[in-house]
Design goal:
382 residues; four-stranded antiparallel beta sheet; 12 helices; 2 domains; single chain
Length: 382
């Protein structure tokens, strides 16, 4: 299947500055269309050699012997149970088992779920749903003290159960619609991550009011799906959650900027057996910059002085339970195979040929277009 992801990008020189946990830029007029069926249309392409010079392509349709091939409908289905492997490694199986019981109980409208002990109950309710089921995290929780007894934990419902049931169904449809719009079945994990990264860049906005005024209990990954806006904690949860739903292992990482201790949170993924960091907040308003995509630890530090070795992976369980917590070195992101992309801006990708096309700005008025062959990386070759 010949599939192209095309983008029409009008690049603008960005003057970046830090505001809270987002890196802001001069707004750019950026739109992308993901042509993942074999019916391909060449969009109008904007060339950044001059703000007044453009080249316009033509529209064409590719047919097969059986006629035009159409995008499959509903090929991604919502999964009630998605869970990053890192949580198992850092928090243990008991917490995972309790989380599964918790989700099943909420979906059944029950008030209690089986849980090994009070420690497991407290940490599971405080950490897992937040990252693994945004709508349930938003409308359920725990009252902690006295909520665990005789092997069962009590569930706190913040809205009527029937209302929650409706919201869960609406949330499932939103997630399925995004995945079915943006992804194809045969996308690799790299292609899924890139497609969602560009989708976030072009469909969501940073909520400056929330950053300045919201308290922690008003910040939820669920809000991104409903309002199409958020702050870093919300975007990283939403991005990682969509990857989990698409079969890519992902979670969140949080830390503080070295020069002013400003907190931030972004996504942490496994692609082709290696660890990378992706920042779905910093890409907003950047003109589809690839500086925050498939980062190694050094690039994460370069882009705003966060030192990953001092950051928290997944949740705060490790910090609370390991004296002098430092992230385990086995989670280091050391692969810089994608470093040539970090100075560029996404233009298009041909997923049949494994070619990513991007633009690098040379001066205020000129840029050059380059290609990146990621095929060898997909096959695990050096």
């Amino acid at each position: 299947m010949n599939k192209k992801i095309n983008s029409m990008i009008a690049l603008a020189l960005t003057a970046s500055m830090l505001t809270g946990c987002v890196k802001t830029a001069v707004p750019t007029d950026t739109t992308s269309t993901y042509y993942t069926s074999a019916v391909e249309t060449s969009m109008t392409e904007t060339t950044a050699t001059s703000s007044s010079e453009t080249t316009t392509g033509t529209s064409e349709t590719e047919d097969t012997e059986a006629g035009p091939r159409q995008k499959k409908e509903g090929h991604y289905k919502f999964k009630d149970h998605v869970y990053p492997k890192y949580m198992d490694e850092l928090m243990g199986k008991k917490i995972h088992e309790a989380y599964d019981n918790y989700i099943d109980a909420v979906l059944a409208g029950e008030d209690y779920f089986e849980c090994a002990d009070e420690h497991t109950y407290d940490w599971m309710t405080g950490q897992c749903a937040y990252a693994c089921y945004p709508v349930i995290a938003r409308y359920t929780g725990s009252n902690y003290g006295g909520s665990f007894k005789d092997g069962k934990g009590k569930i706190r419902y913040d809205i009527p159960k029937e209302e929650l049931k409706q919201k869960i169904e609406e949330f499932k449809k939103i997630v399925e619609d995004i995945l079915n719009e943006v992804l194809e079945d045969d996308y690799s994990d790299f292609e899924k991550a890139l497609a969602l990264y560009i989708y976030f860049s072009e469909n969501y906005t940073y909520d400056y009011y929330a950053m300045e005024n919201y308290t922690d209990d008003q910040v939820w990954g669920y809000r991104v799906f409903i309002e199409k806006q958020g702050i870093c904690q919300e975007f990283s949860i939403a991005f990682s959650y969509l990857l989990l739903q698409a079969g890519v292992d992902a979670t969140v990482m949080s830390g503080n900027r070295a020069y002013d201790s400003q907190g931030h949170q972004w996504s942490y993924v496994t692609i082709n057996g290696k660890y990378y960091q992706i920042d779905p907040t910093y890409v907003l308003g950047s003109g589809n910059s690839l500086a925050y995509f498939m980062m190694d630890d050094a690039q994460r530090t370069e882009e705003d002085t966060y030192v990953p070795a001092e950051c928290t992976l997944c949740n705060h369980y490790g910090r609370e339970n390991i004296k002098n917590f430092k992230r385990d070195k086995k989670y280091d992101c050391t692969d810089d195979s994608y470093k040539e992309l970090w100075k560029g801006y996404f233009e298009s990708i041909d997923t049949e040929k494994n070619i990513l096309t991007y633009t690098v700005r040379e001066t205020d008025d000129t840029s050059k277009t380059l290609t990146f062959d990621y095929g060898a990386l997909e096959s695990g070759q050096p």
